[in-house]
Amino acid sequence: MITDRTPGSSSRRTALLTASFASLMAIAIAAPAQAQTTPAAPPPPATLPADTADNTAQDIVVTGSRITTGGFTAPTPTQTIGAVDIARNAEPNVFTTIAQLPSLQGSTGVTTGTNSTSSGQQGLSSFSLRGLGTIRTLTLLDGQRVVGANVTGVPDISLFPQLLIKRVDVVTGGASASYGSDAVGGVVNFITEKHFVGFKANVQGGITTYGDNKQYLFQAAAGKSFFNDRLHVEVSGEYDHEDGVPAGGFGEQLANGRSWYRTSTFINRNVTNDGSPQYLVRDHAQAYQYTKYGLITGGPLQGTAFDVNGVPFQFQYGSNGVPSKALPGTPQFGLVSGCYPQGGFCLGGDLSGNVGIGTTLQSRLDRYNGYGRIGFDLDANNEIYATVNVAQVDTMNQPNPGATKSSLTLQCSNPFVPASIQAACATAGITSFQFGSSNGELPANITVYPTRKQYRFVGGATGKVPVFGTTWHYDFSYEHGENITDIHVKNITLTPRYNAAIQAISLNGQIVCADPVARANGCVPINIIGGTPPSAAALAYIEPTNGPFQHTRQTQDALAFSFSGSPLSLWAGPVSFAAGAEYRNEFYHVVGDPYGNGVSAETPYTSTYPADPVLNTAGNNWYAGNYHAGRGSYHVAEGFLELNLPFLKSDALGSANLNVAGRVTNYSTSGTIYTWKVGGTWDTPIDGVRLRAVTSRDVRAPNLSELFAAPITTTVPNFSNPNPNRAPGDPATLTILQNAIGNTALKPEIARNTTAGIVLSRPHWLPGFSASFDYYRIKINGVISTLNSQQEVNLCYLNNITTLCGAFNLTPPAGTAPYVNLQAFNLASIFTDGFDIEASYQFDVAKIGLPGRVVLRGLATNVKNFITDPGVPGTIPTQGAGVNAGNTPSWKLLTTESWTTDRFSLSVQQRWFSDGVYSNEYVVCSSGCPVSTTQHPTIDNNTMPGAFYLDVGGSFNITKKLNAYFKIDNLLDHDPAPSPQTNTGIDVNQALYDTLGRLFRVGVRYNF
């Protein structure tokens, strides 16, 4: 039976039910359609959206525009989370609250990236709008850029001051014309209280139902005015500790009683044309190349495993597998009949050596934050100010247990090999055997310790002045930011030393390392058969305390000036105008340790990292965490103009305005580029109904990492030379040096972003109700992506893509090795579209005899398409919409219901995303399958369930100044669905599913 590549009838029913539910939700409940101004402290009721409130008495700053004037309505949809919403959600990090918005897909945080050693992104909290990645979302603090916390340029939200946040605006459309590079998916703007007066504090604690991830949070802020309310001073400080959720052990044992891990895996039968599916989705996959304490994986003794005491026993293969016991060099060497050689899996059997669950479920985090602002009013309308933000985040994660090794070769004469195995070797006529181990004998597992420190200083002036009879707003600022990132890795092996230490011989009655060079340089042998820990000396040799280390310094200097006003009025109202100029310089310098980076002027050998002839002076000596040195900088100069033109005002036809903007930007690396937007709104004569639409050209410039990546050189044997015109005698295959480097010739990615929608705001027949529906469409060309070295060469010679031909030289001068520079290029494209539904309804409940006010709100996002085209001949575009193994489920929903009185508040929140698939490229079948191809492989199951999470919370005013509260996340303790892998890694999508379980938090707030 064959089915198509799209989800089956069950998924279609889900989509229909989802659409119906979303339509009802849009009519009944959800979040405000535009920015709203919300009081700073609970429990007052939420206010109405700013675009429908009375704006005559104040000027509204709309994040989707640079125009500052009363009554202005931007055409770009903007979602808002106010201080009340943040307080009600009671998260220790405001990042988590914002990341729950359905339009934010693929954000990174303390539960993602925990299986990584070398990425540098562990514990890094950054937003991703529309699933386009954190590098395509611009995050601002009070409308100003923030220095990156990673060489990709993304900031760490954990480093932001959080207690003084007044609201967070999320612009869900392109905004490069207003704010510059990176605003392709949109903008997230944190807006703080500028003139806070008084004192407030928050103390909070939390724990999961499993007794882990213990949390405690302390926050305090104070503000006071001096000199007749002209000098404003405010300070805040925070400390947040989160234990995190530790890794499980070997096999399938999760941390602290969790039971959802099943080693779910894609089994590759490696048969494509027998009428059965090539891939099988199965639980309890067994990797048969290693066990916890060692397994002979090839040769006549294959299938002999060792227990913790080093005693041999017959390994229990899954799938009733039988080892081939074939000799090296034969086709069956290392294979197990009944199992699956592609990937090396059996099903069931002894799973004690599996390592996938040995990954931290949430990184440990300690967050320190200090913030201060001083402002002085020159007069009633003009202020000069300075802010300082000093913050630090320390995190820790375990990427995997042990240090898995397969395809090792041990000599039968090795004195650590049990006598019975030495005798069996002699009987079989062999002198060595192939061996694999999870290295369960190592006393401690790999741990990664990233620390990020941020120093950010801003000075500026803001206000308004009269010019020729009209009022003009201005804003001038200078920002200097520095981010220092240090990453230390502990309990990790040096591969060359490990390889030397496992090869032991008996010499003069002592067990020593076999290699005399290694022995002369401190090698101490280790026994990897069984679970006896290495001696202190052996451990110090293979795992020196000076493990992998990386030090990165990033700086950002930004100078900005803007002004706006309404110089004239037309028949439909005042014409508003904004303009400005900005200059920014970005710099980074990273240094890795000499064992990872290699010996260089920046990383010479020292007494801490002594020279060792066993090690490679070119680096890459660690099991993982081989950091490399690099540096780079670029600067940007740009100017922008924005115009809002009212052109219709009529009782019969309503009112309408046209909003246009343009920006010219010059990058020191890629030259000049232009961005623009054209949009408008129409307040129709139908009560409360507004139409809005905007289209824009947006850009993302290449970041420091892409331009100036720290170089990494590796040797690649058997590289194919496809040059059809190669000279006689030039080899068809050769060994090359592959240099992974940055590409300073990269150009900005260019996006076309369009949104159009309808807003219903407080109609007279339902004054507490607002709703909106918006369609979005984004196409990004010239997406920066990396090819492998063979692709680069093939595309040059076989597809005549000449831009790649300068990245390699396979016939260099004599004495020079052939090389390929592995770089990023502007080849790929991304297309995504879908729609957002938002609504809110708030009302007093006095009519039914109850006190207080009820607010119902919710947001839903549908992803119709998310198509990625690699831009490489021979590949096809892939559809990511509805792929729950990725970041873009078809539907994502957030709804809240709250009841607030003068004494207490109660709230309920629902988070949900729809059922999906593993990949839209799979062909689902059980029999009669077509031929399975690389582009459309066959599989027996392609359904990945969605998830529903229920959160509840409440607060009680003990006094007018003291408020106690509680929050329970994932009340139903819903387990995540497996996201099968092609190996035995952590088989869950931590960016989409809750992996922690039920979480309790309680706290007390004081507001004076």
TrEMBL record:
Xref: SUPFAM superfamilies: Porins
Any Pfam family hit: Plug
Motif TonB C-terminal box boundaries: 991-1008
Record's bilayer topology term: Multi-pass membrane protein
Keyword Membrane: yes
Swiss-Prot/TrEMBL keywords: Cell outer membrane, Membrane, Receptor, Signal, TonB box, Transmembrane, Transmembrane beta strand, Transport
Location (main, coarse): membrane
Compartments, record wording: Cell outer membrane
Start and end residues of each TonB-dependent receptor plug domain: 74-187
Signal peptide range: 1-35
InterPro entries in the record: Beta-barrel_TonB_sf, Plug_dom, Plug_dom_sf, TAT_signal, TonB-dep_rcpt-like, TonB_rcpt_CS
PANTHER family named in the record: PTHR47234, SECRETIN_TONB SHORT N-TERMINAL DOMAIN-CONTAINING PROTEIN
The family this protein is said to belong to: Belongs to the TonB-dependent receptor family.
The name this protein goes by in its record: TonB-dependent receptor
Originating species: Sphingomonas echinoides
